[in-house]
Structure formats: C-alpha cells, structure tokens
C-alpha cells in the first residue's frame, strides 16, 4: 500500500480539557484557504469532552490525525507533535484561539520567499472569553529579525506562540522544546533559534488570541516569569560565547541556586528583580510564592517603582495581610 503524500504543513495542537473553545479553534484551521496540511490534535489526558470533540471532527475530515494518551504536560506534548509531524513546516495552534482563513497561506509564502527566516509568527487581535476585544497595553510584535533582537533587549513581546510557523528541521536541530522552561518553553525556544536562523512576524493580525481567567499563562505567572528571566540570562551567556548552563536541565533550580548554576554572584538577585517587575499586575503571582520573591527583592535593596500601587492592588484582590506586609517592607527597606 502506498503511503499518503507528504503535506506541505503539519498543524500541531495540544489540548487539555479544552472543550469550551475547541470546536471554534478546529473549525478555523479546517477553514484555511491553503488546505494542503495535516492536522495533529493531541489530547493530553483530558477529563472533559475534549476527546469526543476531536473524534467527531476526525470522522469528517481525513486531514485530522488524533492522538490520545495520558497526561504528560505541554512540553512533552509539543515534542511529541514535533516528532510525529510529516511536513517540513509546522504551524502551531492552541485550542482556545482562532485562525484567520489566510494565515497558513501567507506564512508559507513568507517562508518560501525568505529562506533565511526559519520562524514567522503573526500579529494578533486580542479577545476575551466571549470574543470581544481585549485591550492590551504592550509593544507590537517585531516584524524583522533586527526588530526581534531589539525586542529581546527591551523585554518586549517577541512572537505569539500559537501564531507561529517554523521549519521543523531547525527546531529539531536545537533540541525542540526544553522541559526546564515549563510555561515559557516558547520564549526559550525562540532565544535558542536566534543563533541559527532569523525570526520575525507578519504585520497582519492573523490570529484571534483569547484571554480568560483560567488559561495556563494566568495560572502560572510566577513560574513563567522566573523561567523567562533565566532564559534571557542563558541567551546572553550564549551571545558572549560562554556555555549555556541550562542546556541539559530537566528542571530549573530554585532562585537561590542560580548563582551556583551560572557560576557567578548576582544572578539570583537579577532574576528576582525581573520577577518583581513582571508580577506587579499579576493577580495569581501576587497571591502565590511570587509575593515572597518581591519581598526578598525589596529587602535586598531592590527598587520601589510601582510597589505602592501594588499595595493598593493587593487590597482590591482581597489580600489585606499581604498588602500590609508589603507596605511595611517598603517603609523599612
């Protein structure tokens, strides 16, 4: 029996308990004007109706390749999708976002015309859980590789992960997604790829990116911000021609262990400073162990910018004890 022809694009979607928005996300992929793709949907051990939804769509569109297994987490899922993809180009997609019908065609055209680029995302239109516009005060995603490198230094957004299309061979060549950077695995990957290829974004907003209270990025803000700070430090180590101390890690050490990991003093302090800045507006981060990192940062002589407003924010969040503790630390530090 002859094997099916190789598709031009492999679409990689991992889902965990994604029943709420999954059908709309799947339909936006199936509705692409460029239709020469396979669609891998991996159910990461969901306990809701995710599996039934995937199975129903797979029964009516042969481009869908469902994968069902026990829960192993997003990084393991992304690496499995990468390994099982058959196309030279991989398009990421999340189960709660919506693709513009021209997304795949325009991204493939860009990569075909600019072989020096290995990764291209798109700008996004931010929406809430009901599909209404979500105001977001952030710098736009950079269009060129030069803009990408500048955005790294200014701590600005780089690429929206579910909007991305990349050359599979390049991502495999740098080792895929690294488990040590759980909840910021995409940032770590872009920073590693920046040494071997160019990365950029299309100017058009070709993905409707959804924001809602229970999404992963909201629930794990402290871990994400910590990992992001370490990933950028590792990037600068590589840029300076030094070995990347995170290259073979399965898990990052506690913040107090970062000086030893990087072989110099001040790394932990630098990470806490970045974490303190990143959590000032995070409801989840201010209520979990991220709060202790902020207190440690202030006691270590860190700057107070925005901290008094955070005291008021903690009161609004229903955390008067933490508000009082932060205020006392500001007065005495």
Describe this structure in words.
The chain is built from 15 helices and eight strands. It is an alpha/beta fold and 333 residues long. It folds into two domains: 9-215, Spore Coat Polysaccharide Biosynthesis Protein SpsA, Chain A (Alpha-Beta Complex), CATH 3.90.550.10; 220-332, no CATH class. Strands 3-2-1-4-7-6-8-5 form an eight-stranded mixed β-sheet, with helices on both faces. Helix 2 links the parallel strand 2 and strand 3 (64-69). The protein starts with 8 loop residues before the first strand and ends with a helix.
Radius of gyration: 21 Å
Series of H and E elements: EHEHEHEEHEHEHHEHHHHHHHH
Report the sheet-strand fraction.
15-25%
Mean pLDDT: 95
The appropriate CATH architecture of the largest domain is Alpha-Beta Complex
State the major sheet: 8 strands, mixed
Shape: globular
Q: What CATH first level of the largest domain would be assigned?
A: Alpha Beta
Write down the CATH topology of the largest domain.
Spore Coat Polysaccharide Biosynthesis Protein SpsA, Chain A
Helices, by number, come to: 15
């Amino acid at each position: 029996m002859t094997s099916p022809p190789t598709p031009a694009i492999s679409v990689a979607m991992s889902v965990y308990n994604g029943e709420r928005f999954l059908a709309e996300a799947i339909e936006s992929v199936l509705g692409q004007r460029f239709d020469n793709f396979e669609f891998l949907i991996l159910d990461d051990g969901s306990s809701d109706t995710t599996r039934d939804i995937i199975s129903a769509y797979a029964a009516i569109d042969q481009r869908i390749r469902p994968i069902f297994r026990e829960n192993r987490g997003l990084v393991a899922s992304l690496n499995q999708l990468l390994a099982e993809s058959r196309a030279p180009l991989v398009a990421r997609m999340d189960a709660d976002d919506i693709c513009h019908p021209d997304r795949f065609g325009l991204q493939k055209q860009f990569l075909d015309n600019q072989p020096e680029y290995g990764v291209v995302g798109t700008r996004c239109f931010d929406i809430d859980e009901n599909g209404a516009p979500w105001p977001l005060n952030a710098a736009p995603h950079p269009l060129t590789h030069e803009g990408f490198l500048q955005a790294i230094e200014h701590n600005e957004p780089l690429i929206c992960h579910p909007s991305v299309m990349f050359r599979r061979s390049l991502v495999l060549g740098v080792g895929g997604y690294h488990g040590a950077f759980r909840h910021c695995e995409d940032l770590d990957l872009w920073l590693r790829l920046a040494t071997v290829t160019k990365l950029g974004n299309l100017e058009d907003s070709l993905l409707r990116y959804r924001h809602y209270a229970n999404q992963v990025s909201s629930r794990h803000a402290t871990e994400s911000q910590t990992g992001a700070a370490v990933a950028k430090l590792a990037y600068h180590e590589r840029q300076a021609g030094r070995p990347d101390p995170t290259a073979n890690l399965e898990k990052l050490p506690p913040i107090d262990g970062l000086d030893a990991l990087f072989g110099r003093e001040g790394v932990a302090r630098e990470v806490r400073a970045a974490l303190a800045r990143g959590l000032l507006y995070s409801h989840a981060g201010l209520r979990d162990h991220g709060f202790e990192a902020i207190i440690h940062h202030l006691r270590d002589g860190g700057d107070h910018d925005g901290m008094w407003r955070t005291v008021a924010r903690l009161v609004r969040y229903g955390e008067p004890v933490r508000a009082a503790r932060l205020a006392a630390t500001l007065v005495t530090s």
